[in-house]
User: What shape does this take?
Amino acid sequence: MEYNSNKEELIIPEYGRNVQAMIRYAREIPDRATRQRFIEQIVGLMMQMHPQNRNLEDYRDKMWKHVFRIAEYNLDVMPPNGEIPKPEDSRKRPEKVPYPIKETRFRHYGHNVQKLVARALQMEEGPKKEGFVQVIGSYMKLAYKTWNREHYVSDDIIIDDLEHLSGGKLKVLDDASLDNLSRNGIIRRPGDRSERERDRGGRQQRGGGGSGRGGKDNNRSRGGGGGGDRQQRRNPRRK
Assistant: This one.
């Protein structure tokens, strides 16, 4: 009995030894047209062996590359795309992805804040830029409070850090509030009434209306008592 370890090494083991033997046999077929049809049938067989990958992009081209690799790139046939694979194609390595260079200043705000600041510096002066700068300040305060829950942060700290990040070119308006992101997107200014005060006033108004309704209900109950007396006078026998 011959062990597999004593046989020829498999180039791509997932296709098995028989596929490799047929591809090696195809190299000895003298007629080029016959050899082309034979390899095409082998590619179809390889696709049947792995039907779950048929929906992948360029799957047939991948099969042809595997055929040339198993044949050690010594095969005189033409793939459907017209490109004959070369040994250099199997040794290609992706280009190295360089690590992004990030500044170490104010790391607790994150790298996205620096991108927002760079974007704001490119904008034209006007209300749109002022609103964008206020959003940046609000996001910085939210990020600061997220990673420093035990420390109190004021708007002055955020404004100073924003000026340092922008080189003194971005400034938040004096009457702007930086709590709009942490309060459901409502921008409040120092002169505005707080939401809690407005809710309290609304509840008081609704409470007054309820007392009026209660007075009407009391009148109805008294009226209902009178109606009961009238019914008793009409039907004295029911007593």
